[in-house]
Amino acid sequence: MTTTKRALVIGNNTYDVNKLTRCKNDAEDVGNKLQSAGFKVSPYFNLTYMGMARQINDFVEKINENDFVVFFFSGHGTEWREKNYLIPIDNKDLVKTPNLHPNWAICAQRTLDSMKERKPFAIVFLLDCCRVRVEDAKAIPLQSNSTSATTIKGVAGSLTVFACGSNEIAFERSKNDRNSLFTYHLLQHIDEPNLKIEEMMSRVCDGVYEDSNEQLYTYRLCTLRTSKIYFNNTETSKKGGKLFF
Questions:
Q1: What is the Cα–Cα distance from 167 to 103, expressed in whole angstroms?
Q2: What is the pTM of this model?
Q3: How many independent structural domains does the chain possess?
Q4: In what order do the strands lie in the sheet with 40-45?
Q5: Which domain CATH number covers 15?
Q6: How far apart are CA 143 and CA 14, in angstroms?
Q7: pLDDT tens column, 112-131
Q8: Does a structural domain hold residue 242?
């Protein structure tokens, strides 16, 4: 069966409320790295709710059985009523009325579940956003120097990584002043040849922890079926066949 490496990357900067500056760079740079590693990349920037919903739905429809799927989002995010939401740029009404989340923000769990229904071999779900609980603040506490998504339920054959823990704020700035802290460290390793994904994410998480002065912990949930999964595999097995991806 033919396997395709597919990636959807989204970066949102131009928010109605509390604009960001590095999320578009994050998505562009991650997309370029994945493309160089053989992925078919669908990059989108500064999407409204309708735009995000449409591009996610279109991408999901392209997923075939046994594909390797990557989803990357950089932008604002929240936790609302025990669900993680990814925020589109038209967020003014969400700030005023948090109850609009189900209708005007992207539910991360629903997105992950919809991808799993297509029966890919593996899903890597990378969310570079904060996870501040809206119930606590009564409004989306988006800060100008941060990007903001309770615990997501894993699906079989997936790896989900948040840039920070529950009810925490991710760091938008890194030492290169181009990318967020999480994405900066992701870019150091994402296309490294023959590096297993779980090992790669351990390095990313260590880097985030160190550069945040031991303040920031990434959150990982792994249910991958094998450890032999790579973003950029150049080796062959002893029988001459490719290892996983």
A1: 22
A2: 0.90
A3: 1
A4: 40-45, 5-11, 68-74, 122-128, 158-162, 219-222
A5: 3.40.50.1460
A6: 14
A7: 999 999 999 999 999 999 88
A8: no
